Amino acid sequence: MLVRTSLLALLAFATPGLAEEIACEGAFAIDSSAARLIEIYGADNVVTGMVPGPEGTEMLATTVFPDNSRKTLQFVWWDEESLTGPSYVDLPSKSIAPGGVRIGMQLKELEALNGEAFDFSGFGWDYGGYAGFETGNLSDLPGDCILSVRLGPSTYPEDVDTLPVTGDVTVSSTEPLLEVMDVRVESMSIGYPHPDFRD
Question: At what angle do helices 34-41 and 2-13 cross, to 10 degrees?
Fold first, then answer.
C-alpha cells in the first residue's frame, strides 16, 4: 500500500508543467480514462463538465488542474458515457509535446523536428492554423498518438499581402511569406483515431 501511494504521489507531481516531454502513456495513453486521471492527479484536481467547443458549440470534457492555466489539461473522450478513450488532449502552455514540440517554437524549428515540410490550414478562421503530420518524424510517435498543433503569425506586416495564407486554404510550411509573418506554435494537442478506424 505504501509503494502504491508513493507511486501515485510521484505521478501526480510529474505533471506536464514541469518541462518534461509528454509520452503517450499513462494519463495520455490510448486506454486512458477519467478514472485514471483521478487516480493519478487526485479527485480535487479533476473536473468533468461542459466546455466551449468550436464554432460556438459546447462539448463534454474532463479538465485536470482547471485553476492553474500553466498546468491545465483538457481531455475529450470518444466514449462520453464511460469517459474512456481519449479523442484528444489539449496540452498546457509550459509542456513539451511528444517529439519535442513547444508552444512558441518557430515554424522552421517545427519543420526541422519533423524532418520535412508539412501542410496546415490558412489563418483567420475557427480551424485556422491547424497542422497534423501525415509524414515525417512527428507522424510516427511512440504510443501511436497523433500530434496536432495550431500555428499563428506573430505579426501581420502592413505592406505584405497575407491573403494567400488566410482562410480555408492549404498552406505549405515552405511558403516564404510565413517567415515574414514569424509563424510560431500557439497550441498543442495529442489524440487517437476513433476506435472504429484503428488497425
Answer: 100
Q: 72-111 in b/e burial notation, b at 16+ Cβ within 10 A?
A: bbbbbbbeeeebbbbbbbbbbbebbbbbebbbebebeebb
CB neighbours of residue 40 within 10 Å? 20
Q: How many CA atoms lie within 13 A of 66 on its CB side?
A: 14
Give the 3-state secondary structure of the chain: CHHHHHHHHHHHHCCHHHCCECCCCHHHCCCCEHHHHHHHHCHHHEEEEEEECHHHCEEEEEEECCCCCCCCEEEEEEECCCCEEEEEEECCCCCEECCCEECCCEHHHHHHHHCCCCEEECECCCCCCEECCCCCHHHCCCCCCEEEEEEEECCCCCCCCCHHHECCCEEECCCCHHHHCCEEEEEEEEECCCHHHCC
Enumerate residues 6+ apart whose C-beta is below 8 A from 19: 94, 95, 96
Span 22-49, pLDDT tens digits: 999 999 999 999 999 999 999 999 999 9
Mean pLDDT of 163-173: 96
